[in-house]
Amino acid sequence: MTDLRRLLPAEMDELVTGAGFPRYRSDQLLHALWKEGKTSLSDIRVLPAALREHLAAQGYTIGATTETLRSASDDGETAKVLLKMADGTLIESVMMQYPEEGHHPRSTGCVSTQAGCAMGCVFCATGQMGFKRNLRAEEIVAQIMHFANLLRERGQHVTNVVFMGMGEPLANYAETIRAVRLLVDPRAFGLAQRSITISTVGVIRGIQRLAEEGLQVGLAISLHSPDDDLRRRLVPTAGPGSVGRIMEAAADYFHRTGRRVTFEYALLEGVNDSVETARELAALVAKTGAHVNLIPVNPTAGGFRRPARARTLAFERVLRENGVNCTVRVEKGSEIAAACGQLRTEAARAGALQATAQAAHRSTAAR
Ligand code: SF4
């Protein structure tokens, strides 16, 4: 079976015209998939039955994505969902809304690119879960379509996408890039390239390849420490000298794309949150003009704690005084466990995951 949402518009044109139908049928199909969010081929009534039947006979379908759990923050601005893919794999995605006066809210979808993650960051619930499998491009974009369909009911739409959910996007490079191309193609989802940010823990070869794609997407690199040894303790899969190589790759990305990189920095109490560390970080990044996003970490199974607010602000002040453009990430959904991997972990704890897995197993066995 092939999910129709995997096909880029040019591939869709080829499929439709190759079957003897005019190209405008491809436009209609793309519109139904991406602008109307149709989830069943048989619902796309604008297409002639002969085309629908031909596609179904060739094994084309629209993959089922089922929401199995949702938790929303008290203010309703953050929703985290656990989605079950067609094979029963569970992944999580988050939608964050930022009210804007006189406009619809900015609605940012945060997508997973892998089920689990092999990078093993010690403060991350997903990292502690281990790697299950890469997601396919259609499974990545299905997360955004899920939110787009929810928002459409309110007359709103997804305005931004961040690749910051479960997994390392650049370790699933080809599928991540295909998903980006589907999201930015005007005949598919049609989002502005600059509305998309890919977040990486520092896969150097992936950053270099991304710089050559001819895309204008934002890049966020999780740095977490200006010191190599400490960084390797926090991100065990980082190679020796990773800090220096990340700085080179970030400079190259800026040079090639004109887009400055954001450095993400998870603040861990007593680990990387001292004023001295802030000075070292400032010395490293000030001349690059990069932005630093400080993220007071969510408590996870790693046993790390979030620094007190005053300590976070002191860290931020040192960076600013030393010429670094920085922000403290707006707390979105920490009360609903919105750090990557946490909803899935909590679902497992509550037994919901087990129940879902058993149900999936039962339905597979019944086939
Ligand atoms: S922080 Fe990101 S890269 Fe690190 S283990 Fe978690 S999901 Fe993977």
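^ iron/sulfur cluster complex. DSSP finds 13 helices and 14 strands in the chain. Residues 117, 119-121, 124, 126-127, 166-168, 201, 340 surround iron/sulfur cluster (CB under 6 Å).
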